[in-house]
Amino acid sequence: ASVGLRAPVAQGLMSLTWMMEAVALDGVPTAINIATDFRSPIFWDDSVDVFAKIKEGGDTDLLVMKADGSVCSLGRVSDLVR
Predict the structure, then answer these.
(1) Cα dihedral 75→45→7→9 (10° resolution)
(2) Would residue 31 count as lying in a domain?
(3) Is 59 in contact with 76 (CB distance < 8 Å)?
(4) Quick check: is 20 in a domain?
(5) The pTM is what?
(6) SS3 letters across 15-58
(7) Residue 3 maps to a domain
(8) How many separate domains does the chain show?
(9) Which of 18, 31, 43, 48 could connect to 81 by a Cys-Cys bridge, CB 3.0–4.6 Å?
(10) What CATH number should be reported for the domain holding residue 66?
(11) What span, in angstroms and rounded, lies between the C-alpha atoms of 21 and 8?
């Protein structure tokens, strides 16, 4: 019998990298405050989408979602300086 997860996990750092890529599309920040919540595992072969919503005042909400609609990670960016 096999033990463990079905595939290698590519969670925290990969998810954070994807969120930072979304933030950097309008230019690389020189300072940033980001809070993250890693909700469920992302396996190396999962397809994901990253969504960013810029709120009034400049804060940005980030969402990493698997193709099946499950939320993997959430993030909030504040104090962004470009």
Answers:
(1) -20
(2) yes
(3) yes
(4) yes
(5) 0.87
(6) HHHHHHHHHHCCCCCCEEEEEEEECCCCECCCCEEEEEEECCCC
(7) no
(8) 1
(9) 31
(10) 3.10.129.10
(11) 22
